[in-house]
Amino acid sequence: MAEGPAEDPNNGRLRSTILVIDDEIGIRKGCQRVLAAEGHDVILAQSAEEGLEILRQGRQVDLALVDLRMEGMGGLDFLVEATKISPELVCVVITAYATLDTAIESTRRGAYDFLAKPFSPEELLRVVNKALDRVSLIRERNRLQAEREQRMLELSTEKSRLRNIINSMADGVLVCNAEQQLVLFNPAALRVLPGIKRGAESYPLAEVLQPPELNDVIEEASRRRVRLSQEIRLTHLPTQAWVLADVSPVCDDTSGLFLGTVTVLRDITELKRVEEVKAQFVNMIAHELRAPLAAVDGFLSVLSEGLVKDPEQEKHMLQRCRERIRALAELVSDLLDMARMEAGRVRREIMPQKLSDIISVVVELMAPVAQQHGVTLTTQVPDDLRSVDADREELIRLFNNLVSNAIKYNRPGGTVTITAAEDGAYVKVAVADTGVGISEEGLKRLFTEFFREKRPETREISGTGLGLSIVKRIVDFYHGRLDVQSKIGEGSTFTVWLPFSTSVPSSVSAATGESREGQ
Ligand code: ADP
């Protein structure tokens, strides 16, 4: 854009560039002298064509003084051509024929004023200064317009930036006006409120928004001009979902006028699910702790009051106390395992492990329990099996859980058989029992936390419902596989596949295994 006339720092007058076009050298030189003395830059041209060429070259010209009658192109034609190149050029025509007609014709063609020859320096300056005022006005108007356009551009960039920010937010955003009409929403809002249709903006809220509770809370926040936060269950969706709606009233900064509300919707479905699991968990723990604690308390109060005289009976009671306390300790350690896994805080020392080693540790640990239950424990685990990359303690925990269940849910005189073999890229370990078996329904939910089959034959057996979900997590961690085959009354077989080690030779694990045994 062309620059405006510069301000003369010395006397405050505008310094301009003035093009003088006249075929009379005397006029050209005379104008140059007078105008240069006023501090203006003067460009001289002796024909209209030369003047046009100067404009075409893009030279900055604020004002043109042009002779009406010249050789070749005349002043009036110059006006027409000049405005094509520089539409806002202010022109003053110089004419020896200062009749009203030529004056009118020249202004009709775009001249701003005219100057009649001969003219004095004062007359020249008077007309030039008047024309320069006009130049200033045009420049000022252009400046204001450019400023306005720039502001509009900034505003629209700002608006689209704001749109982009709102659209990329993970939380849903609903903007309502003071008339309770939805005026803006983002894609995240659509995810939690699929009922809103595109183009729903500016419809009354009650017509476009489900569920009604959301409407109500927005309406209340608008009416009372307070920020409200409410958990809302989205009952209209096919799956269970919850949102936390945070509604803020918005008022104009200066006038305080109420403009509407901004609602942020946070999907809290997962949080709610965790809350539910937690509540279920606390319930279960309370239940599981209360029964054995009450039993131990009962036994101990009878014993402490010296009411039991028979030493055999006393021994029996103490034995029951120990059993109950052991079950509690088991529950606590299962809970700790779960909590550690849940928090991702399990520390593993992963190295090649010999499964024959692991199984013999488990059998050693479980032998007394098997004996107590009258169950025979047998193993068929080749010593030269390929080793697996895993944490030793975790593998012991995994098979301990399976063998412990196979004993617990067995029948007196029953058997538990542990077999292992290589199977493709895996080592396969199967724990088979001859126990109560698992129902079809039970098989579907077997690995979910706290699941326990409620059947007459399992009611007396204590447990936490956490063992198998721990087993599943461990197997999953090592990218293994888990399978259960079971028949009610006949028994169950749990099979675990673990990928065998591809790194260090198995002898390493034997040495490490020995050093950590008994921990
Ligand atoms: P817990 O044994 O502490 O109850 P688990 O997670 O180990 O918890 O097992 C979950 C449920 O699966 C048990 O309550 C039981 O009903 C069933 N179950 C597990 N193993 C066997 C098995 N070998 N035979 C029959 N039922 C079993």
Outline:
The chain is α/β, with parallel strands linked by helices. Helix content is 48%, strand content 22%.
Features:
6-stranded antiparallel β-sheet; 16 helices; 22% strand; alpha/beta; Rossmann fold; 5-stranded parallel β-sheet; 519 residues; Helix Hairpins; Beta-Lactamase; disordered C terminus; 4 domains; binds adenosine-5'-diphosphate; disordered N terminus
Helical stretch tally: 16
CATH class of the largest domain: Alpha Beta
**Beta-strand percentage?**
15-25%
Bound molecules: adenosine-5'-diphosphate
**Integer tally of domains:** 4
Under CATH, the topology of the largest domain can be stated as: Heat Shock Protein 90
Report on the architecture of this protein.
The chain is an alpha/beta fold and 519 residues long. The protein folds into four domains: 6-145, Rossmann fold (3-Layer(aba) Sandwich), CATH 3.40.50.2300; 169-267, PAS domain (Beta-Lactamase, 2-Layer Sandwich); 273-341, Orthogonal Bundle (Helix Hairpins); 347-499, Heat Shock Protein 90. It has 16 helices and 20 strands. Strands 10-9-8-13-12-11 form a six-stranded antiparallel sheet, sandwiched between helices. Strands 4-3-5-6-7 form a five-stranded parallel sheet, with helices on both faces. Strand 19 (481-487) and strand 20 form a beta hairpin. The chain starts with 5 loop residues before the first strand and ends with a helix. The relative contact order is 0.05. Adenosine-5'-diphosphate is lined by residues 401, 405-406, 409, 433, 435-438, 446, 451-453, 458, 463-469, 492.
